[in-house]
Amino acid sequence: MKKLLLSLTALLILLLPAAAQQKGPNSHVIGFYNLENLFDTYHDEGKNDYEYLPDGANEWTPEKYVIKLKNMARVIAAMKEDNKVWHTVLGVSEIENRHVLEDLVAEPAIADANYQIIHYDGPDRRGVDVALLYDPRKMQLVSSESIPFTFEDSEVEFTLDKEAQEKFRTRDVLMVHGIIGGEHFAFYVAHLPSRLGGKGQDLRARGGEIIYNHAAKLSKECPGIKIVIMGDMNDNPFDDSMAKYMRGRKTLEEMGTEDFFNPFWSMLEAGYSSLYYRGEGNIYDDILVSYTLAHAEKGTFQIQPIVKKKYYGRVFTKPFMTNQNGQYKGTPFRTFSNGAFVAGYSDHYPTYIIIKR
Questions:
Q1: Pick from 230, 32, 29, 231: nearest CA to 135
Q2: Are 317 and 272 in contact (CB under 8 A)?
Q3: H and E: helices and strands count for the chain
Q4: Which of 248, 250, 283 is nearest to 268 (CA)?
Q5: Distance of alpha carbon 150 from its chain centroid, rounded?
Q6: Measured CA distances, 71 to 38, 234, 244, 273, 354 (Å)
Q7: For residue 278, what pLDDT is reported?
Q8: Average of pLDDT values for 249-259?
Q9: Domain that holds residue 201
């Protein structure tokens, strides 16, 4: 029934006169934010959320949960203050369930955004998922899909044997098809496998391959659709998962029609970072766009330079989101530090792009 309703909605949108479809703002903010373990204080059956319970290792009390929600909302509100508009689309990761997102979007600091939620419960053993928040006044939802991580039909050479592959669990990839100002968009939200223990390069490569193959198929089914891929990739833009398997390119000039533009590649080389791993600055929080959005037809939505009129992405930082002194000075001010609750924000900075006609 849900798919039928969404299909009918899409049909009605497509049947609208062109003038009606074109109404709405001419620029939109599209971003991603890893919320760093946004868990509620209750146990979800089948999820390994025990450390985020009141009697768990993190002593995750309702009071701490409320602080976490307010902090996440403060960051989103700060981005709105800078941009003068709410995000049209905001992908998020490291969220436990739909309930935490319902609590988040109801926070007074961001309630006016009227964010709607797209979320599927995934198979990750820790119980964290990805999701998408969107402004229904700016985007009309057509359909959504949760894409599982599989090992079949892959060109990647895996280190895991068949038995280990069958036991492996990670986050699904979320795909959302929507219409913004009469134009078709697809948004992919990912949280690729961890680097914990220095492992997972092949698994992240497979994640990139899954996303790219799905996007390529969608492009054929919906010619001209504009595609945005975002997420915590646990890899830098030059790593194989991004550059080889997702066909990310550093510049607009390098792009072929089947490639994706990754504006954060050149930003990383210029010294920008969205997180620090083992003391080094990285940008794992990537946003890539298809050729149809990077080299858009005149009068349609196209990615815009927004930092120094040179860089097509932004890593959003504010002093309150950053450690101002001590061992971790200059890095993201996170929720826990050395096992202690410090009432910070996230170990990642959010990233975003702007599209404009």
A1: 29
A2: no
A3: 9, 18
A4: 283
A5: 20
A6: 11, 23, 36, 20, 24
A7: 79
A8: 97
A9: 2-11+29-356
Q: How far apart are CA 126 and CA 48, in angstroms?
A: 5
Count of domains observed in the chain:
1
Query: pTM (2 decimals)?
Result: 0.93
* CATH number assigned to the domain comprising residue 234: 3.60.10.10
At residue 204, what is the residue type? R
* pLDDT tens for each residue of 99-109: 999 999 999 99
DSSP secondary structure string, 295-318?
A: TPPTTS-EE---BTTTBS-EE---
Name the amino acid, one letter, at 192.
L
Would residue 17 count as lying in a domain?
A: no
Chain centroid to Cα 41, Å, comes to: 24
The pLDDT tens digits of the residues spanning 269-290 come to 999 999 998 789 999 999 999 9
β-pair type (226-232, 183-191):
parallel
Q: Measured on CA atoms in the order 214, 216, 219, 225, is the torsion positive or negative?
A: positive
Q: How far apart are CA 192 and CA 239, in angstroms?
A: 13
Residue 45 has what pLDDT?
A: 87
- Residue 23 resides in a domain: no
DSSP character at residue 235: S
Name which of 15, 21, 3 is nearest 185 in CA terms: 21
pLDDT tens figures, 74-95: 999 999 999 999 999 999 999 9
Q: Is residue 285 part of a domain?
A: yes
Q: Lowest mean pLDDT of 6-20, 54-68, 136-150, name the range.
A: 6-20
Contact call for residues 116 and 178 (beta carbons, < 8 A): no
Residue 19 lies in a domain: no
Per the structure block, which two tokens stand in for 85?
A: 């508009």
Q: 319: which DSSP letter? A: G
- The mean pLDDT of the chain is 93
Q: How far apart are CA 244 and CA 28, in angstroms?
A: 29
Contact (CB, 8 A) for 274 and 348 = yes
Distance of CA 317 to the CA centre of its chain: 17
DSSP letters of 256-286?
A: -TT-EE-HHHHHHHTT--SEEETTEEE--EE
* pLDDT score of 348 more than 80: yes
